[in-house]
């Protein structure tokens, strides 16, 4: 059971610490702008970790979602069929919105929480902290790895495979390291705008392109052809599991919401930002996924930006590349920030500009970037990598953990017998989500792993640390 939290101070409270001096002499003063339960005393001469407004939070939430997921949506709809695909998409959107709402509740009750790791500690103590730390960091770094793969595909497409793919992967990892080393989300939020505009421009351009073309670029260019558009698909178990996992990853930014609300100037504005972002994301996903699949059918590429022919593929990836880099930046920044906070907790260097501060911070971002580079090089299959991240990590962190923490925080064992009708329905709903997520973890992981194995076995399948062009997969 959660311990009762201290009543939080008003977000407008500021503390100023000035030494007494009865002789009128000039003395060095330390001005503490605000005390935060995560970052400690936020000082004038150090980084301001509480500087994200609600609009900036909306953009960061949007960018944490619209990155990888939108590029795999048309392919998932092609597997499931348009009707089951849209129904699954809307259902997952509703579940993830509930999870996002739970994030706000948890943060307001437990102000020391900065990431999923802290939720694990609140629920299960030190053991929970260590287990959740491993899962959280692996998830975030795997997402970075898949974003690096996506960015390397973009560089290959734009340059017509001007050099070895392994070089492009390394370049993307280095760029991500540099951008992720910006210390606060408040200073990264402007990159969120760049990334959001970049990705939306690319997918809108793609949508228009496939709509005006006579037929998909990968379809037979002469004679009649069947696009393969299906109202209801007939996928195998492996194919359906991988497709659903891809849809889950399209909304798997929920773990980032905890860090975003923690760096907001006024966390009470979080729900406005979250509901706005989720509504926009779902509208964009349905519109883009439906249109691209309708016009491309079974000839849709994975990632989807390669569906409109060589020229438009180069244009679309040119527009999307900044957005892919921003995805790398956000998902690389957050696990590095967690490691940094853990290493520097209680130290005066946490909110200073000292050499120790910068050395530890750059060491954290560099380590995470190196691990993401290894993953991107070892599993350079975009679809399979996206599927396994969504199934194994996204489902656990975004659905199972959030439902479990709500149950624990609301005394579910006692409240079911004593609570109101609405409370009982919410308890049943969250228990159902825990069971559903357990099933999706097993089925989705099996399907994604099997898909990766099949790709390696296939003739011409992409291999680890490859120099081959990875922008021509469909």
UniProtKB/TrEMBL annotation:
<feature type="transmembrane region" description="Helical">
    <location>
        <begin position="381"/>
        <end position="405"/>
    </location>
</feature>
<keyword id="KW-0812">Transmembrane</keyword>
<feature type="transmembrane region" description="Helical">
    <location>
        <begin position="159"/>
        <end position="179"/>
    </location>
</feature>
<comment type="similarity">
    <text>Belongs to the amino acid/polyamine transporter 2 family.</text>
</comment>
<dbReference type="GO" id="GO:0016020">
    <property type="term" value="C:membrane"/>
</dbReference>
<feature type="domain" description="Amino acid transporter transmembrane">
    <location>
        <begin position="51"/>
        <end position="445"/>
    </location>
</feature>
<feature type="transmembrane region" description="Helical">
    <location>
        <begin position="191"/>
        <end position="212"/>
    </location>
</feature>
<dbReference type="Pfam" id="PF01490">
    <property type="entry name" value="Aa_trans"/>
</dbReference>
<feature type="transmembrane region" description="Helical">
    <location>
        <begin position="425"/>
        <end position="442"/>
    </location>
</feature>
<keyword id="KW-1133">Transmembrane helix</keyword>
<feature type="transmembrane region" description="Helical">
    <location>
        <begin position="52"/>
        <end position="71"/>
    </location>
</feature>
<feature type="transmembrane region" description="Helical">
    <location>
        <begin position="355"/>
        <end position="375"/>
    </location>
</feature>
<feature type="transmembrane region" description="Helical">
    <location>
        <begin position="275"/>
        <end position="295"/>
    </location>
</feature>
<dbReference type="GO" id="GO:0015179">
    <property type="term" value="F:L-amino acid transmembrane transporter activity"/>
</dbReference>
<feature type="transmembrane region" description="Helical">
    <location>
        <begin position="315"/>
        <end position="334"/>
    </location>
</feature>
<keyword id="KW-0472">Membrane</keyword>
<protein>
    <recommendedName>
        <fullName>Amino acid transporter transmembrane domain-containing protein</fullName>
    </recommendedName>
</protein>
<dbReference type="InterPro" id="IPR013057">
    <property type="entry name" value="AA_transpt_TM"/>
</dbReference>
<feature type="transmembrane region" description="Helical">
    <location>
        <begin position="77"/>
        <end position="103"/>
    </location>
</feature>
<feature type="transmembrane region" description="Helical">
    <location>
        <begin position="131"/>
        <end position="153"/>
    </location>
</feature>
<feature type="transmembrane region" description="Helical">
    <location>
        <begin position="232"/>
        <end position="254"/>
    </location>
</feature>
């Amino acid at each position: 059971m959660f311990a009762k939290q201290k009543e939080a101070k008003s977000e407008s409270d500021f503390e100023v610490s000035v030494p007494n001096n009865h002789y009128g002499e000039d003395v060095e003063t330390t001005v503490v702008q605000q005390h935060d339960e995560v970052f400690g005393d936020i000082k004038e001469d150090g980084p301001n970790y509480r500087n994200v407004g609600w609009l900036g939070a909306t953009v960061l939430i949007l960018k944490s979602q619209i990155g990888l997921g939108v590029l795999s949506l048309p392919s998932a709809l092609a597997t499931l069929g348009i009707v089951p695909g849209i129904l699954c998409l809307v259902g997952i959107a509703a579940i993830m919105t509930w999870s996002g709402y739970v994030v706000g509740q948890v943060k307001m009750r437990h102000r020391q929480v900065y990431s999923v790791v802290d939720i694990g500690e609140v629920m299960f103590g030190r053991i929970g902290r260590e287990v959740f730390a491993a899962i959280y960091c692996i998830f975030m770094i795997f997402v970075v790895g898949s974003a690096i793969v996506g960015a390397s595909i973009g560089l290959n497409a734009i340059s017509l495979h001007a050099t070895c793919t392994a070089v492009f992967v390394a370049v993307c990892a280095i760029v991500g390291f540099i951008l992720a080393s910006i210390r606060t989300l408040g200073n990264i939020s402007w990159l969120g705008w760049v990334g959001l505009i970049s990705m939306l421009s690319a997918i809108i351009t793609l949508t228009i392109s496939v709509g005006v073309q006579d037929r998909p670029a990968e379809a037979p260019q002469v004679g009649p052809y069947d696009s393969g558009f299906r109202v209801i698909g007939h996928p195998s178990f492996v194919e359906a599991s991988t497709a659903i996992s891809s849809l889950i990853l399209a909304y798997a930014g929920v773990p980032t919401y905890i860090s975003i609300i923690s760096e907001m100037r006024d966390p009470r504005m979080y729900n406005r930002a979250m509901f706005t972002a989720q509504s926009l994301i779902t509208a964009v996903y349905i519109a883009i996924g439906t249109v691209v699949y309708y016009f491309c059918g079974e000839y849709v590429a994975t990632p989807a930006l390669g569906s409109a022919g060589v020229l438009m593929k180069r244009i679309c990836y040119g527009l999307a590349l900044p957005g892919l880099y921003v995805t790398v930046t956000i998902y690389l920044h957050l696990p590095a920030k967690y490691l940094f906070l853990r290493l520097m907790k209680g130290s005066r260097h946490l909110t200073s500009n000292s050499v120790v501060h910068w050395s530890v911070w750059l060491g954290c971002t560099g380590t995470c970037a190196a691990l993401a580079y290894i993953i991107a090089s070892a599993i350079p299959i975009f679809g399979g990598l996206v599927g396994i991240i969504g199934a194994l990590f996204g489902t656990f962190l975004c659905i199972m953990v959030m439902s479990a923490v709500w149950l624990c925080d609301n005394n579910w064992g006692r409240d079911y017998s004593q609570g109101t009708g609405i409370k009982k329905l919410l308890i049943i709903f969250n228990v159902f989500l825990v069971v559903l997520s357990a099933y999706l973890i097993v089925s989705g992981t099996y399907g994604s792993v099997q898909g990766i194995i099949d790709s390696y076995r296939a003739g011409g399948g992409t291999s680890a640390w490859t120099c081959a062009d990875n922008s021509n997969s469909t």
